[in-house]
Amino acid sequence: MADLDTTVTPNVTSVRKEHLGSVDEAGQPARIRQHAEFRNGNEAAALAARDIGFHLMGYFPITPSTEVAEALSEMQAEGEHDIAMVPGDGEHGAAGICYGAALGGGRVLNVTSSQGLLYALEQLPVQAGTRTPMVLNVATRTVSGPLDIRCDHSDLYFVLNTGWIILLARDPQAVYDLNFAAVRIGEHKDVQLPVLVAYDGFFTSHQKRRLEVFDDPDAVRRFLGTRDTPITALDPTRPVTFGPYMNDPDLINNKMQLTEAMAAARQVIPEVLAELAVLTGRTYPLVDAYRMDDADVAVVLLNSAAETAKEVADRLRADGQKVGVVSLNALRPFPGEELRALFRNVRAVLVGDRGDSYGAGNGNLGLEIRAALQQDPENRTLVLNRIYGLGGRDFYDADAEQFFTEVLEAAKRGAVETPFAYHGAYAGDPEKKPLPGLPPIATEEVSRGMAQVTRDEASGRLKVELAPLWAMTAVPCRVAPGHGGCPGCGVFPVLHQAYSVLEGDLVVLFQTGCAMVVTTGYPHTAHRITYIHNLFQNGAATLSGLVEMYLERMRRGELPGSSDITFMMVTGDGGMDIGMGPALGAANRNHRMIILEYDNQGYMNTGAQLSYATPMGHRTATSEVGEARAGKAFHHKDTPQIFAACHLPYVFTASEGYPEDFMRKIAKAQWYAKREGLVYGKVLSFCPLNWRTTDDAAEEVLQAALDSCFFPLYEVEKGHTTLTYDPEAVGRRRPVADWLGQMGKTRHLLTPDNAERLKAIEDEVERRWQRLKIMHAHEGL
Amino acid sequence: MASLPDNDRFFELRFESIGGLGAHAAGQILATAAVLRMGLNGAHFSSYGSEKKGSAIKSFIRLGPADQPIRTSAPVESPDVVVVFHRALLGHPATIAGFRANGTLIFTGPPGEIPDGLAQLPRTANVIRIDAQRIAAEEESRPNAVLLGTLAEAVPFLDAEILLDALNEAFARKRPEAVARNQAAFHRGTTEFERLPDIGRAEGDLPIIRPDPFWGYQTAPLGGVVLNAGSTAWNDLSTSRTGWLPVLDLDKCIHCGMCDMVCPDLCLVWTAEGNEPVPAAVRLTGVDYRYCKGCLRCIETCPTGAMTREAETPGLAERLGQPLFPQLDG
């Protein structure tokens, strides 16, 4: 095994000349020509990815980092790079895709934020422990719950103990530059670790700044070299076992190796950044010390907030105050030695943490700086720790001023009055009384028999008699107006139609998605009944737990005997990607609940990325259309058939454009969910914004989806498949192109260039339709 | 190279808009042109919430000399220029919060109309009105193209030609058919605006507003629960409409309930006769425009043509609207 050379060399070799870019006349490396662009942090990450030429990107969209995959999809469609882009079924899946790809010896990229990072978290130590380099960009965002899409560092802090190198990028330029460094650092033979590049969500990810971009990617690729890994999973001549079963006494030694790699990284990172500085003209020391030469006090902040503090430091310096700002360019390995040296003569520092380690009495950065200084017996620096900016709370000049005031005061007094506090939390006004909600809806008001369900004794199947549509206007809607949905949104017709026939008391769980976000903007809610949100990885499991608690408490006599609750989960089609596992778990356990999916054919809540339910060829933000690509590469997921294979009492499809059919099915769903077990229903739901139609085109577009047999309406009741609308039988069958021609997201499919793709869509639609017709006709299917 | 009025501080612009009117795109076009073609340094970003098309957004532009680094990432609070893309926003104090005494306000509105909120501006403010919605409709462009034209004239250091080039370039690749229409809209924006003298009544810079949230840590129910069920009914979403609303003609209505099945905004007002579980008859009495976002799906679905599309003139919604929850008004 000697040739694998996994041992740590403390003295890292000097600059690897063969990797350098262009050289000047004296043969020394010279700056690579660059040009200015105006780009935000996400675009900077995407441009760096293009210029690095990663082999593969595995990803799953999550705000605020989604735009990286979107920008790369757009460039890919125009043939500007050839990175293989693999959309995961969730971030856990995406992390797995990346891990497998990285074992194959090429260069790998992932991008995520917040819950996505947490969902991927268990893969992170696996990858570090098995010493598999890749690059993960994180646009930092706070973690749930409650759900908040904006920036803090609470997601990043979960990564501290995973064994990944963590670089911090304070602005879009740093995002661009540090991605190149990340590749080299992680692949260095003495390191061989995955590298995370973190930048602030929105503040950096979405703010456009002037950005210097390399004119000649080849020059920077010479700097990068190729990934030179002695072992890969793609070399049959050299069989390798990755990930053995390793108990004591061995595992501690594996971790010792990892710790030594981190120690080596302390040397490698400055070397790589120095090499890169020659090419870019921009430097990134491990610790960014601003006006610290003779500083009495300092404020320590990570990423964008540090830049704001520098503006204030300049003003205070002009007033004669000896203040400085300290920020880190690397968080792992932690630059403790550098900080000890820097703070030797500093009287007081205030460490701001954009994330709390609840109950520790400090945020993580506060703890680590205190610990670093404690190792210097001579050090007398006073330390204050402040938790600030949680959940995206802006950091203004005035906030930085307040920090300097507090730290100057401590230095002056020679003592810290308040070692730890929250900055920017608001106590509230006890005089303020909330606006009342709407009056509760009495059970009788929503138990009007708008759908009469009877069981046909002969067939064992249900029959539904609907009241006329006009009569249903008397049923108070369980969701209130005033929600923030887009004009024309199909989610609300779906809910309103379902609620018009669902009888009695109802508890709903909404998975993350449009319907959740636009109905519950704090401090308001549109829901007039009990509503729960859980993240879309896990809604079905959560609701199944509530169902079983209901049944158990009923059994114990702890709830009123009259209690009769129906439970329904509402999810988008995206939630049926990432949440498929728990949904199938709930289906296999056959809990008494309904899963209702509004299918608008994409991840619309995050800006229309492809979901597995997006049909082939459709344009989304991650399946762009251009010279080289024409929309989504694979066919739409057949979720109803997956649930049908769980042998549920009832599975159905419906369209919000055909209310009577949907309402008959949702009435059956309630009957089965209260008596026999789990029901799954998929409802086609209009999304004018992202289907690129006018707001009032629903009826036509939805009808064309049915008439073209793209979206067949059917039910699988006790294992029997029945088509509930057959466009052929009523002479309305139309070509799929009639439907595709009505939406901006699909119009490109009708051009001659895409004839082959259109044929593939038609063939698949026909194949699935014929299969359903056979099932419809067959007694046993 | 453009020369800023004051090199000791940033020149800051804030666009006040509704999602879908193009404020973010306009900010991006302006800032990109300033940074890449006018020799300035700059930053551009927009306010992001989880709200969708039709809700309020702000777009921020910060410009400085080329050699001045831009380090702050906080929103623009003391704007030199505010551009209001939808005149209903002038009713919100936050729209002009922090406005500088000598700042410029550009708002879209029909000739002759001076919205009430404008009196809150500083006496020394430059106030400009342009009927961007109408011009955009006539040119089959969008209000942002018109407003960029007006901005180019109203802000002396902006080069109109460069800005127009940037606008053209932004559309040239993806929507080439829009370039000529945008160009026409832009040109009309540079000429068809009016300067309104003596509008503001306030003295000096307007104060910055950073509103406190409703709840605080001593008052909010634990765990973020919301106990006032259905409280979005207090929201007013009228500003989500972009010029059109559905109007009910009772003579043609057969009260069939079709519109109710497809209305995303749940804003149709019905009365029922009889207290039985299934009523004897129901009547559609109108629309609560407080919630109507103007998607017009009710018109699409109406079998008798009882719902029609009307241009929203000032006061029309108030005149025709029916309250869905009368208790909110009392």
Secondary-structure topology with pairs:
The complex is a heterodimer of chains A (781) and B (330).
Chain A: E1 34-39, H1 41-52, E2 56-59, H2 66-77, E3 84-87, H3 91-103, E4 108-112, H4 114-120, H5 123-129, E5 135-140, H6 154-157, E6 165-169, H7 172-187, E7 195-200, E8 209-214, H8 217-224, H9 251-280, E9 287-290, E10 297-300, H10 304-318, E11 323-328, E12 330-332, H11 336-342, E13 348-353, H12 364-374, E14 382-387, H13 397-413, E15 420-422, E16 451-455, E17 462-466, H14 469-472, H15 491-501, E18 505-511, H16 514-519, E19 531-534, H17 539-555, E20 565-572, H18 575-578, H19 580-589, E21 594-599, H20 639-644, E22 650-655, H21 659-675, E23 679-684, H22 688-691, H23 698-707, E24 713-717, E25 720-725, H24 736-740, H25 755-777
Parallel strand pairs in A: 2-3, 2-4, 4-5, 5-7, 6-7, 10-11, 10-13, 13-14, 14-15, 18-19, 18-20, 20-21, 21-23, 22-23
Antiparallel strand pairs in A: 1-8, 6-12, 9-11, 16-17, 22-24, 24-25
Helix pairs in contact in A: 1-2, 1-7, 3-4, 7-9, 10-13, 11-12, 15-21, 17-19
Chain B: E1 11-18, H1 23-37, E2 40-46, E3 56-65, E4 81-84, E5 104-108, E6 126-130, H2 132-139, H3 143-154, H4 160-172, H5 179-191, E7 194-196, E8 244-248, H6 258-262, E9 268-273, E10 281-287, H7 297-301, E11 307-311, H8 316-320, H9 326-329
Parallel strand pairs in B: 1-4, 4-5, 5-6
Antiparallel strand pairs in B: 1-3, 2-3, 6-7, 8-11, 9-10
Helix pairs in contact in B: 1-3, 1-4, 2-3, 2-5, 3-4, 3-5, 4-5
